[in-house]
Protein: DUF4352 domain-containing protein
Amino acid sequence: MRPRLSLLLGVLLVLAAGVGVNAVTAGTEPSGSVSTRFALGEDVRIGEFQVHVHDVRAAQTLDDDGVPLQTSGMWVIVDYSAATTREPAYSPGLGLRDSEGRTYAISSRSPVSDWRVAPDTWTRGEVAFEVAADALGDLTLFVWAYPRTVAEDVPVGYGVTTISLEEISADRVILAEPELLGEGER
Structure:
């Protein structure tokens, strides 16, 4: 009787462990990273960062100190603010994925791409992505607390939200420079 009871308890333990693993991995990507869903206009904590995405828009041309920056596709501009929870750092990493599965990093031609943030001190600005002309529609915005190459190799958390872009501005867009926000502002 004792060996059967031990076997039964062992089987139940293995089944319980499997159910637990399934529950934990249900919200993870294949890399093991755990995603945190958030919405535009909502604060989200990702690692040591606090992030608030205000708006996302599209334009055909950016203005870089009076010089037009055109693209064969379109520019997607993300207006967001960020702070850290412990140590000063550069702003978190951002990425976009379109409905075709193509991924985009912040453009190296973006007039503004990175700034310093500090604990509980919010900084707001805009960054630009150069995306394919047919990328209008649903886009997925990712926010990483670590450089993307680290985030894809190590199981770390990241933020994700879905945005919809249907129109491209014909006006030349000037990106907002990073600015330090007052207490309680995002």
Remarks:
- Confidence is low (pLDDT under 50) at residues 19-32.
